[in-house]
Amino acid sequence: MTTYYVGTSSAGLADGSSWANRYGTLNDAEDTPVVAGDTVYVGPGTYREMLTCDVSGGAGNPITYIGDYSGDNTDGVGGVVRITGSDDDITATRTNCIRFNSKDNRTFQGFKVDLATDEAMYVLDSDNFIIDSCYIGPQTNFGGLWIGSTVGTNGTVKNCYFNNEDYSWAITVNNAGLQDDVGLLIENCISTSNYGFVQDNGVGGITVKNCTILGGGRGIYVATALTAGQEIVVNNCIINGCNVATEAQNLGEIVENYCSFSGNNTDRTTVNVGASSNAYPTILDSRWFFETVR
């Protein structure tokens, strides 16, 4: 279990062993290669590269990349840690910002990813991944996060903000056929994406909870019918300003409860009303806001 350090330019021995001897690119660290239990601290700045994950972590010993926004583990100053698919902040050049295929037990925390030609983050056939506290978007033509092929099991997306301004989904979960019981958890996220938050193409066993969805064509959408008995559970979410807040192909594919719907053209299409859901704006305690920002 080794800790490595990455900055926007290398320094010292450039072997990643400390901030003073940091690597100059993300792929320098990946190609070490990293192994199960390793942690990579990435210093503030803009990384114009696609991080392609080469290896898996281990059960209980993930390989973890942390964008060091506070600077506590890198430069002592801090700031946004950005991975971009663009070389000039205008034109998208690289396919993705972070990409992993059949690489399990990987964790990414604290990054801003944007402006790839396809999805900002691309995850295929990978189990036990965690995407935490990331700002995903804006994108140009495709979505923020694509989870697909044979969808890995027990993935977690949490505490993320999805801002896809153009024609794109925040999260697409995709299988060419049907797949059941994937155990994907999406929680504590905010979406302001144009198409919507979650598009599900035939994948069952997803839980969406404690999320805020603001605008978009659809909030939660089952685009391809699930296997009978499979479902997306949507709990304790705020869905506001969508064309259609929740839409499924068949009743029972989306099971929602404790949700607040407001300002949508249609709250539900082929979705039953949750027993404890409401159709008016959530009333927030303003004292919480002022105490938080003070």
What does this protein structure show overall?
This protein has 294 residues and is mostly beta strands. It has one domain (44-293): Pectate Lyase C-like, CATH 2.160.20.10. It is 4% helix and 40% strand. The protein contains 2 helices and 26 strands. It has helices at 26-30, 286-293, and strands spanning 3-6, 39-42, 45-47, 51-52, 63-67, 81-84, 98-101, 106-109, 112-114, 121-124, 130-132, 135-136, 145-148, 156-158, 161-162, 169-179, 184-187, 190-191, 196-203, 206-209, 212-224, 232-235, 238-247, 254-257, 260-262, 266-269. The strands form 2 sheets. It has a 16-stranded parallel beta sheet that branches. Strands 1-2-5-8-11-14-17-20-22-24 form a 10-stranded parallel beta sheet. The longest helix is centred in the last third of the chain and has 8 residues, at 286-293. The radius of gyration is 19 Å and the shape is globular.
Give the helices and strands, then pairings.
Layout: E1 3-6, H1 26-30, E2 39-42, E3 45-47, E4 51-52, E5 63-67, E6 81-84, E7 98-101, E8 106-109, E9 112-114, E10 121-124, E11 130-132, E12 135-136, E13 145-148, E14 156-158, E15 161-162, E16 169-179, E17 184-187, E18 190-191, E19 196-203, E20 206-209, E21 212-224, E22 232-235, E23 238-247, E24 254-257, E25 260-262, E26 266-269, H2 286-293
